[in-house]
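Quick start: what a row looks like.
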Amino acid sequence: MGSAMREQLEKLLASGRDNALLRFGLGNACLKDGDAAAAALHLQQATQQNPVHSAAWKLLGKALLALGRADDAEAAWNKGLEVAVKQGDIQSSREMTVFLKRLRR
């Protein structure tokens, strides 16, 4: 059973509103629902539509890790870290650095 938030966002998407922010919101909602597979799909789209959205890369890594795809998660976080550093997004770059360290243990 999806959250109301997710249903609302899915309606927007179905109506033809497709952008990185919407996909990010959907990915986030899916992750909260415990639906990592759907989250990964939406977040993958978000990063394609806006490759410099560091938070989308961060969540994509989380979704991929939840699916047991550690290598893909690492790749997403590496890319996200690169983007976050360029954007001056200190918070995201710190978080992804921590995630990567944990992953490589």
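That is the whole record. The chain has a mean pLDDT of 95. The CA atoms of residues 82 and 93 lie 8 Å apart.
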